[in-house]
Design a protein that fits this description.
alpha+beta, D-Maltodextrin-Binding Protein, domain 2, Dipeptide-binding Protein, domain 1, Dipeptide-binding Protein, domain 3, 3 domains, eight-stranded mixed sheet, six-stranded mixed sheet, 15 helices, 24 strands, globular
């Protein structure tokens, strides 16, 4: 039997890795003679393309690429697009160590406050202009304005500028040991390096210039939102000499082109994959996983080896969820198994419940407050009646084309109706959900009340990067939860010298989060991607990466 070949990285279970990692490697799967007639029938003629050429990698993303700015938007397709066309100063290896990427290295002053980061020679943007420190400084500043971890560490930055074309200078107000780690990984947003004139765009406005710094360049003249996205290999990209691992090392573009086909129907996408008409499918619908396991021409691999955490996010600006008592009533009624079974097809090996704001299996992740999430609808109904809720409409914005999110919205809709909330689902594609969740208007003016999402567990390991518990208000993650107490505790977490002190602070943060309910954790689960067995070098981590991948 042919084995699937992938660069999966570290696969053990150290502190900080979620227990939900139940199948960490690429899974070779047994041969299936024919595709079922029902599935074959749904393959539209327009996707019946010729068998993939060696020089073209054909990819089906989890949803449409509707936003092109990975600092402005955190949607999966947008971040995948970002990783294709940009690079970063530092990256993370599978041991979670920050390593230089575009940087050649750095020095730190004796007082621990001044970093001098030296760029590698020969780095160019896709317009063939050299990458300079003058580009890196505003890129980091723009990232820090939007990213949760970026906002956290930038409170300690006194200055960020270019000492010369190849040397970036960052001066801190006081030493913080996590600074290089922060700019190596970010949290939901990634500190991608953009040209100076692009990086100076208001972080709350989308960029219009997609000139990148990475191994592939975006072919804007071929872009058709909802149908087709294309990237070409950037011949002047200078990869590192080390092997590729997670987000560091030699990001070698083995394919001349990467072409995305936007196929909203998962059965259609799977049919194209099995027939060899596409090479790689980003997110496999759970009920199709068993069928793919029987096909020796296809490989399954976890999209992220740390697993994913599901989330119910409230809008804190408007009724009814500006009222903490209403939020508490909803949380009391949540039964995580309902959500996890809906999103995984019911296979208990694919999920675990986790009543913690941090991923279970990570250092800080363990069931914290079982009393806060009882799955008790009757008690939730009583709490809602006593909350002051006055029948305000609660609009759940919910995707129809993302199988790892859409079912969560339907479970919540059922729960809200059962406890007495006037709930409504606004169904749309994921791109529209992502756009609408940025609206701060009330529901009668096109706003929203709840949305659901999922995130790699590794971006929620500590309070620094956990966007859902941070109380950043207007500059925070959509929902705009504001909590000066949480923010003060997070700053204290960064500054204290001992692990014992940090442990106590995290305990207090969890207690505060369960009291104030900025979001409701829904459990942890696996997400599978699938690709043709002829591909090798696929890296599992935060997003599909197109470097290092080639065809046998």
């Amino acid at each position: 039997m042919q084995r699937c070949r992938a660069a999966m990285g570290h696969r053990s279970h150290p502190a900080g890795e979620a227990k939900v990692q139940l199948s960490a490697g690429a899974v070779p799967i047994r041969r299936r003679a024919v595709l079922s007639a029902a599935m074959a029938a749904v393959l539209p003629f327009r996707f019946a393309i010729a068998r993939a050429e060696t020089s073209v990698l054909r990819f089906v993303p989890q949803a449409n690429l509707s936003l092109l700015d990975p600092i402005f938007a955190t949607a999966g397709p947008t971040q995948c697009h970002g990783w294709a066309i940009y690079d970063t100063l530092f990256g993370m290896n599978a041991k979670r160590e920050p390593k230089p990427q575009m940087a050649d290295g750095y020095t730190l002053s004796d007082d621990g406050r001044t970093y001098l980061i030296r760029l590698r020679e020969g780095l160019k943007f896709h317009n063939r202009e050299p990458v300079r420190a003058q580009d890196c400084a505003p890129s980091l500043i723009r990232w820090a304005a939007r990213d949760t971890l970026g906002q956290t560490v930038w409170q300690y930055v006194e200055g960020c500028d270019a000492k010369n074309d190849r040397t970036l200078r960052i001066v801190l107000k006081q030493p913080i040991p996590i600074f290089i780690e922060a700019i190596a990984r970010g949290s939901i947003n990634v500190p991608f390096i953009m040209p100076e004139h692009v990086a100076k765009t208001d972080p709350y406005k989308q960029i219009t210039d997609t000139t990148g710094s990475g191994p592939y360049r975006f072919l804007a003249d071929e872009f058709v939102s909802g149908a087709h996205v294309a990237y070409g290999r950037f011949a002047d990209y200078v990869p590192r000499s080390e092997p590729a691992e997670w987000t560091i090392g030699g990001k070698i573009a083995h394919f001349g082109r990467v072409e995305w086909q936007i196929i909203p129907d998962s059965a259609t996408a799977i049919a194209a994959l099995q027939k060899g008409e596409v090479d790689w499918y980003d997110v496999v619908e759970p009920d199709l996983v068993p069928m793919l396991r029987r096909n020796a021409d296809v490989c399954l691999a976890p999209q992220n080896p740390t697993g994913y955490s599901g989330t119910l996010r409230f809008n804190h600006l408007h009724p009814p969820f500006d009222n903490v008592k209403v939020r508490r009533a909803v949380m009391i009624g949540v039964r995580q198994t309902d959500y996890m079974q809906a999103v995984t097809g019911g296979d208990p090996s694919e999920y675990q419940t986790c009543r913690s704001v941090f991923p279970c299996g990570s250092y800080y992740g363990a069931d914290f407050s079982p009393d806060a999430m009882q799955g008790d609808v009757d008690k939730a109904r009583v709490m809602l009646a006593a909350s002051g809720y006055n029948g305000e409409k609660a609009v759940i914005i919910n995707p129809t084309d993302l199988s790892v999110v859409g079912p969560l919205g339907h479970v919540t809709y059922d729960l809200l109706r059962r406890i007495g909330i006037n709930a409504e689902i606004a169904a749309s594609d994921w791109g529209t959900v992502v756009k609408r969740r940025n609206s701060r208007e009330p529901v009668e003016k096109g706003g929203w009340s709840i949305f659901h999402t999922y995130a790699p567990s590794n971006v929620r390991w500590t309070p620094m990067e956990h966007s859902m518990i941070r109380g950043l208000g207007a500059t925070g993650f959509p929902g705009w939860y504001q909590d000066d107490v949480i923010e003060a505790m997070t700053r204290h977490f960064i500054e204290v010298p001992t692990q014992a002190e940090r442990d106590q602070i995290v305990h207090d943060i969890q207690a505060r989060a369960f009291e104030m309910v900025p979001f409701v954790p829904l459990g942890m689960f696996n997400v599978w991607m699938a690709y043709r067995a002829g591909l090798t070098g696929v890296i599992s981590f935060n997003a599909p990466y197109f470097w290092n991948v080639h065809r046998l």
